[in-house]
Design a protein that fits this description.
Blueprint (H helix, E strand, L loop, with lengths): L2 E3 L18 E3 L4 E3 L15 H5 L5 E3 L7 H11 L4 H9 L9
Antiparallel strand pairs: 1-4, 2-3
The protein binds iron/sulfur cluster (2 copies).
The site of one iron/sulfur cluster has 14 residues, from loops.
Length: 101
Amino acid sequence: MAMKIVEECINCGACEPECPNQAITAGDDIYLIDPEKCTECVGFNDDYACQAVCPVEACQRDPENEETEEQLVAKALKLHPDDAELKGKFDSGNFPSVFRK
Ligand code: SF4
Ligand code: SF4
């Protein structure tokens, strides 16, 4: 499930550098999350890094974009094909995930 940024966004930019997948960019009105790149931080954090820093709770779960942890692991591997450390974490089954908090 990808996260989305809602209209309460005040364009502070705090979330953008926190995303491990460069999924967040400045849009015309508010910041945007590319659902093709959001992996819910699986493999990198055990929480939503964007949501954790947002001062106005504008980074929210998007129920219309539900994905399983397995799907998000596959997405992360596709986004980071050369990241041996990430692959090793997934192979070992020992990786941070919001699904395992
Ligand atoms: Fe990026 Fe994680 Fe936020 Fe998704 S949940 S947009 S991967 S920081
Ligand atoms: Fe918008 Fe929140 Fe990101 Fe700031 S941290 S740009 S308010 S979504």
